Amino acid sequence: MRLLSAWEASLESYHLRVMSLSKHLLSKLSAMIDLESVRERARNILRTYRGQSIEDFYRFVVRAILSQNTTDRNAQRAFERLEREGLLKPQNILKSPISKIAEAIEIAGMYNVRARVLRRLAFLFVKGGLENLAAAIPSMGLEEARRALLSLPGIGLKTADIILLFYFNKPVMPVDTHIQRIAKRMGLVEKSARYEKIRETLEQLVGPDPEKLLVVHLALIEFGRNVCRARNPLCKDCPFSSTCNYYINMFRKP
């Protein structure tokens, strides 16, 4: 019987880990987070954004842009300030000086850059480009829809994928910093893996059902915030510790 090489043994171990994780991911997550609450949030999201108007799409994109590289709380406060100032109406954005827009969203950070992005987005809305895009995306394939969203001002890969999953119910896995950290620590991807590799790996792991992708996305973020934290992760309480590269390297060294 031929002995496996070190590379083959490592690959076999990886595949076994992925198969086990694919089968037991949500059940293991439920040991550490309130999975039913996460599922209810996912159902609410899918109900909320189904069949919305172009104005709601515009507001969703604005909220997504404000959420980049900041906390949910600060993004929400910036969004509410825009609403109080009447700056969630594209026509008002176009009439307002950049300094006023920037002041309204200062709490979210990068306010001068974001203010200019919101101005450009409002211009697209008024000219009808945003409405045409929102109408076309449901019938587009996933990659075509991603390219279309990436053509919008201020939209990067993660934000495009959030819009596709949350708003259009497309089968894609947005990858934030928590999800990236979890995937690398568990050894699902190399430490040097970039966004697209992590996204593709997790999509293969979870499968093509948009609702399940949304549940796993929300669950992993909560797990990353409360268990697999950037600092002082709760490794010894973690249900994935037996197959987690990070735990094995940190706590099982001879």
Molecular structure report:
The chain has about 250 residues and is mainly α. The chain has 2 domains: about 5-45 and about 175-250, Endonuclease Iii, domain 2 (Orthogonal Bundle), CATH 1.10.1670.10; about 50-165, Endonuclease III, domain 1. It has 14 helices and no strands. Helix 3 (about 55-65) crosses helix 10 (about 155-165). The longest helix is centred in the first third of the chain and has 24 residues, at about 5-30. It is globular.
Topology, number of strands = 0
List the total number of helices: 14
The helix/strand class is: mainly alpha
Beta-strand content:
under 5%
Mean pLDDT: 89
What is the annotated CATH architecture of the largest domain? Orthogonal Bundle
Total number of domains: 2
Q: What portion of residues is helical? A: 55-70%
Low-confidence parts, pLDDT < 50 over ≥5 residues? 6-12
Query: What is the 3D shape?
Result: globular
CATH superfamily of the largest domain: Helix-hairpin-Helix base-excision DNA repair enzymes (C-terminal)
The level-1 CATH class of the largest domain: Mainly Alpha
What is the H/E string? HHHHHHHHHHHHHH
How far is the first residue's CA from the last residue's CA?
Answer: 30 Å
- Biggest sheet, in brief? none
C-alpha-based Rg, rounded: 21 Å
CATH topology of the largest domain: the name is: Endonuclease Iii, domain 2
Summarize the SSE layout with pairings.
Layout: H1 6-29, H2 35-48, H3 54-66, H4 72-84, H5 90-95, H6 98-104, H7 111-127, H8 129-136, H9 142-150, H10 157-167, H11 177-185, H12 195-206, H13 210-226, H14 245-251
Helix pairs in contact: 2-13, 3-7, 3-10, 6-7, 9-10, 11-13
